[in-house]
Amino acid sequence: SGALQRARLNGPRRQDSGRLVVITGAGSGIGRETALAYGRRGAQVLCTDISAEAAEATAEVIRREGGLALSRKADVSSSRSMEALARYVDKELGAPDVLVNNAGVGLSGSLLDTSVKDWQQVLGVNLWGVIHGSRLFSRQMIDQGKGGHIVNLASAAAFMPSRMLPAYATSKSAVLMFTECLRAELAEHGIGVSAICPGVIDTPITRRTRFVGVDDDEQERLRDNAQRLYHRRAYTPDRVAAAIIEAVEDNRAVAPVSPEAVGMQWLGRFAPGLAR
Ligand code: ADP
Prior knowledge:
Elements: H1 2-10, E1 20-23, H2 29-40, E2 44-49, H3 52-64, E3 68-73, H4 79-92, E4 98-101, E5 107-108, H5 116-144, E6 148-153, H6 166-186, E7 191-198, H7 205-208, E8 210-211, H8 216-233, H9 237-250, E9 254-257, H10 259-270
Parallel strand pairs: 1-2, 1-4, 2-3, 4-6, 5-8, 6-7, 7-9
Helix pairs in contact: 2-3, 2-9, 4-5, 5-6
Bound molecules: adenosine-5'-diphosphate (ADP).
The site of adenosine-5'-diphosphate (ADP) has 24 residues, from helix 2 and helix 7.
């Protein structure tokens, strides 16, 4: 209602008003919750996703709550699509204050079962998506000279060697290293860079993860198992959204989310041989 919208607009939680936040993969899961959270904090949110409808649905919720939001279709794995997005932002909105490189895909399967095409998709979205977004939008932030923040979605899987996740875990550990390199490079421009490492989070990615190298029945069974595990132990995506906002506020280098993510981070850093 109008009264509710005004109450929200005038309420105390408007910490990010006047800031532009660009989010990739904002149509679902963690990206969607992050978009909603920034909308409630008064930011102008540009929701992007490979699904134009999903991105617009998120933007629509933000506007219904009285916030400011736009949507745009963008495929993070495509340099052309991301260049078009960057041109639009530069022309219409000005450099983002916060970029959340969130879009991701899940894939489970051993090295020998994973096709070249699957490898390219996982690395294309999870790693190249982060690289495209970072190089295009950090340029804008530098040119505009007012600093900014880039948040990259890594994963607890970045610390966890596993025979069933070579592509996904490799993409996420590369995101972590990329983040740390970029953080060193951009500090002098007043741009912070953070990696978020969620553990078991209840998002549609569990339902979308493909298990390769198994027949259809086994694929169903593995998916059911994963979902059961996730429903029992999972954090909800709004916890990750809160961690993203905190990482920006406090300029955190790496933020684990959920107990197993903390454990994996610890094992991966200090006892890598034990991280199995
Ligand atoms: P999670 O939130 O756990 O990362 P989801 O599967 O719920 O997982 O959300 C991932 C989002 O990323 C989806 O909205 C999906 O459409 C989006 N996405 C997947 N691939 C791409 C891509 N190539 N470009 C942009 N967005 C993508």
